[in-house]
Amino acid sequence: MVIQDPVPGVPGGIPIIASEFPELPKALAERPSWDSYFLTIAEAVSTRATCPRRAVGAVLTKDKRILATGFNGSPPGLPHCSEDGCWIEDGHCVRVIHAEHNAVLQGARYGISLEGAECYCTTLPCLGCAKSLVSVGVKRVVYSSDYNPDPRVLELGIILEYKAPS
Ligand SMILES: [Zn+2]
Ligand SMILES: [Zn+2]
Fold first, then answer.
1. Which of 65, 120, 122, 138 could join 133 via S-S bond, C-beta 3.0 to 4.6 A?
2. From the CA of 122, how far away is ligand 2's center (Å)?
3. Ligand lying closest to the C-alpha of residue 89
4. For residue 166, how far is its CA from the centre of ligand 2 (angstroms)?
C-alpha cells in the first residue's frame, strides 16, 4: 500500500511505503484532535512555570497555528518565586504573571494580533486573565482543569469548553 501523505511545503507530498512502517496506519488512526494537540502543548508549556504553588500553561492559536505561549512566572529578568519566594496576597501569589496573561503579553511584545484567536490552557482562566483574553479578541477558551473557577468568567461572552486531559 502506498499512502500519499502530503508534506507541508513539498508539492504533491512524498509517497510513503506503508509496509516499511508497520506502525504508521495505527499512528495515523490515533492522531490527536486539534484540541487535544494544543492542550498537550499547553501542558508542556506549564512545565516552565516558576511558582512552586502552581504550574499553568497557555497556548494562543489561530487557524491551527500557534501564535504565542505563556506560563506563570515573574516578568523577564526579575527573580523567580523559586529563587526569592512567593509574594502572597489573599492566598494568591502576586509575584508571577499568569500564563494566559503572559501569552497575551508575548503577542503584544512581538506585534502579533490575537483577534479571533483561541486559547488553550491547563486551568480555567481567572477573571483577570479572562478579561484580558476578551479584550485582545480571543473568542474561545479550551481548558483541561477548572481549579477554583470564578463564575463571573461565564458572563464575559467568551466560549468556554472543558476538555479532559488525554
Ligand atoms: Zn509564587
Ligand atoms: Zn489568571
1. 138
2. 11
3. 1
4. 23
In percent, the amount of the chain with pLDDT more than 70 equals 89
161 forms beta bridges with 142
78 SS3 class: coil
Question: How do beta strands 10-17 and 57-62 pair?
Answer: unpaired
Tell me the three cell numbers of residue 2: 502506498
At 147, which amino acid appears? Answer: Y
Amino acid of residue 122: T
Query: Which residues are CB-neighbours of 125 under 8 A, at least 6 positions away?
Result: 98, 100, 119, 133, 141, 143, 153
Average pLDDT, the chain: 90
Give the cell for residue 71: 506560563
Q: Is the pLDDT of residue 104 over 70?
A: yes
Q: State how far the alpha carbon of 44 is from the alpha carbons of 13, 51, 58, 122, in Å.
A: 30, 15, 9, 10
3-state secondary structure of 143: strand
The overall longest dimension of the chain from CA atoms, in Å, is: 62
Instruction: List pLDDT tens digits, range 133-149.
Output: 999 999 999 999 987 78
Note the pLDDT tens digit of each residue in 35-85: 999 999 999 999 999 999 999 999 999 999 999 999 999 999 999 999 999
